[in-house]
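User: quick one
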Amino acid sequence: SGNEVKDCDNVGEKVKDSEDIVMVPREDTCFSDDVPTLAFPSISTADFKFSIEKASDIIVDQVQLFLQKYHNVRLVLVDLSHSSKILSLVSSKASQKKIDTSKFFTFVGDITRLYSQGGLHCNVIANAANWRLKPGGGGVNAAIYSAAGEALETATKVRAGSLMPGKALVVPLPKTSPLFSTEGITHVIHVLGPNMNPMRPNCLGNDYTKGCRVLREAYSSLFEGFGSILA
Ligand code: AR6
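Assistant: Done. Structure below.
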């Protein structure tokens, strides 16, 4: 099938606590029973000010296309708050389209803490990047670079110096990154979405014809990148 995550012989070891035998994860814990899962934020809809209504249609369409092509996979749209508008729009549109909720669902949490705080194991996460692929700048980009440590910056830099809108870059996460050891994340996929914010580079003004085309391309590049990891 080609969809399995890599084998590992052991997911934990027994440690004698003062009273109880407890299971603690090893440093190199992997999650071989899991279905390969991509967690992604809503690209462009916060700092880049893309319409949430339009973005929700594009997300659901692209998810549906991907799930028609790949079977043993899960996609999870993540946002920080229970009052997230994009999460509620996407989950209601996905249910209208009868998308299998075991293969695609929304989740409230910090994308850098999904396993440790939410108990959700995602082996790949997407980042809503900036065109220079630089840390900082706020939003999910700042959170991911900060949680992943310098290892992500180095691994990104050797692969690319910049990204075009609509494109994605798959970066294997070095084992030295805390995101690898504590969250079980093996890859970060940077995605650059369309920018509708005049205060940021390459603003599309109000050109949603182009904006929607670029956002569709961004999700399709992201999901293809995830597919390439599974192959
Ligand atoms: N975990 C999960 N979701 C998050 C997190 C987090 N830790 N932080 C933010 N979100 P944004 P954009 C959600 O602004 O609109 C950056 O500065 C957030 O609520 O991060 O594509 C880059 O450097 C929203 O739903 O990305 C770029 O310059 C989604 O993530 C620019 O912003 C995306 O919000 C990209 O802007």
